[in-house]
Batch of 2 targets.
Target 1
Amino acid sequence: MAEQKLSIYKSRRNRVCLTQTDAGRFVVKTFLDESCFQKELQIYKLLQNKDIPCAQVMAAEGKTLVLSELPGQTLVECLQQQEQTGVPVCDIWKKLVAWLTAFHQETGFVMMDVNLRNFLYDEKTKMLYGLDFEECSPDSIIISAASVAAFIRTYQPENTPLKQEISKYVLQLFAQNYEMEVDRLFLESAGQEEKILARRKNKI
Ligand SMILES: Nc1ncnc2c1ncn2[C@@H]1O[C@H](COP(=O)(O)OP(=O)(O)O)[C@@H](O)[C@H]1O
Ligand SMILES: [Mg+2]
């Protein structure tokens, strides 16, 4: 089948390309690690027929997954736009918490890598999608919730009033969903923020 690479996505560890074939456009994700490929495939199988918006696996072979192309832009871009207008779009962040909660409750796993490039939001349909499941574990939701709020605060420019407001909103929603003490989540999130900043410093 004729295949044309249209673009390469920003990826930390893997090779992720948007590809045009005779049958349409697909995202081709080739993993560096066989175990990560297996983990992501396992999670996609768990998500099948569940009401949790995500890509469809079209093929899986070697260390490569062929996925349906999801619409929308990453939550990093959404956050940047909200920073420019100075107005939080609460509906998007509410959908993010609802997605992570449903993912945990339906699969028993939590997403450990919850950086905002792992979520897409489609303005047209108002749908939010999750992707990148190679780092999932049957853990407590606390780390995932604390970490996603920490990611929100740490994109440049860090810790603006808007980012703090969105982060607080997200943590309060998790606290409601799981009947948790919000102060415990705030504390855990401060710890996650330190870890994110330390990782970033070590890379430079
Ligand atoms: N099915 C998809 N549809 C549209 N974009 C995707 C899809 N899968 C991945 N992407 C894009 O590719 C980027 C990297 O993919 P991801 O699975 O997160 O790889 P990595 O594990 O290397 O971070 C994402 O941030 C997203 O922008
Ligand atoms: Mg990713």
Note: The longest strand covers residues 15-21.
Target 2
Amino acid sequence: MKKIGIIGCGIAGLALASLLKKSLDFDISIFEKDNIQDTNVSGIQISPNGKKVLSHLNFSNFQKDNFCSIKKISFFDMVSSSRISDMNLNYLKNESYITLNRSELIKFLIHEYSLSKNIIKQKVVSFDEKKIILEDNNQLEFDIIIVADGIFSKLRINNIKPVYSGYSAIRGFYKNLEIEDHIDVCLGKNCHLVKYPIDKKLNKSFTLVKKIELKQDINHYNYPLENFFNDYKDIIPQDHHEIFKTTKTVIWPIYKLNKIFYGHDKSIFIGDSAHGFIPSRAQGASMALEDSMHLFNLINKNLVSADKLSKLRQKRILKVISKSENNLIIFHLSSFVLRNIRNQIIKIICKIHFLTKTINSYIFDYNANKSDF
Ligand SMILES: Cc1cc2nc3c(=O)[nH]c(=O)nc-3n(C[C@H](O)[C@H](O)[C@H](O)COP(=O)(O)OP(=O)(O)OC[C@H]3O[C@@H](n4cnc5c(N)ncnc54)[C@H](O)[C@@H]3O)c2cc1C
């Protein structure tokens, strides 16, 4: 039986392990340095392209109360405190746009595919094509090694590195009063705020994205942020003051990789370790899921190589990066005239169904399991 070593128990590593365990006969080991079983709340949006991969992984067994199917995206102008328009997503019949707590997805994959037996709780310090070296100096041999260790990977070559985007995300959670099925995107001057439900138990996530100078390099997420409300109350919409006064918040500096890097020959990187980018189109997890599906298909056909994966993925990842970066510019416009033009365009796109579909189709309609290689 072939041995495969996967470094990192994030969405990319676990989705690949689940696909392999579901369909192929491999001896799988997954290495993880952190305690992934702790129930850290972290909201995540998964669009239909990523959801297609999850459907392949028995997502129909995921507890119904633990995720939300999103029916519309509501756009607001924070400066004029007015609603711009609603983008209806009801047309997404086959695969919906979902929001959930990332930890619940991780728990689901581990449970559904009995992956606890395959997880080795150890930090990987280095690797080559056939060998993984652990922190305790143990060396293990594999036929295939996949690196899925996130944007702050220490296993990449030196010239591929995360660069601070200049923006940080301030994130928190609160209890809502009623069950909702929409995402709110509030566009401000040089900032934007996104809020969405993460389950049907009234839990809601918010993320405020803003240019923030980093006083020190923070190479992990979930850094606690004191005084959030006092420091940001001028830009937080008035009707949210009561909620945000008492909410605990963390700061996630937003990094992006200076270059897309799927690895060399048989040393293969996937997910954020290959292409971490700005999350303003909420595509990081979906791209990680697409990567896993493509790599699984290559492994299945005995065609596994970093070059092949890179050829399959480069163009799409570049386009999604560019759409994400454009979104950030459009969301943060500070000029009165440009903001008004933007708001009119959003209204037209939301009103004309054909335009809504067209704007979303490049990202949403993609099926990683059906694309050619
Ligand atoms: C503010 C913000 C909001 C976001 N919102 C969304 C969203 O709504 N929708 C969306 O799709 N994406 C979103 N993303 C992006 C998304 O979270 C990531 O793209 C996605 O989680 C990447 O998954 P991954 O498996 O590649 O990496 P990670 O989730 O980073 O997993 C890597 C794993 O590898 C482990 N590891 C690292 N080094 C080692 C080592 N040496 N040995 C062993 N283990 C190791 C880590 O502990 C970790 O568990 C957001 C990102 C940010 C910053």
Note: The longest helix spans residues 306-331.
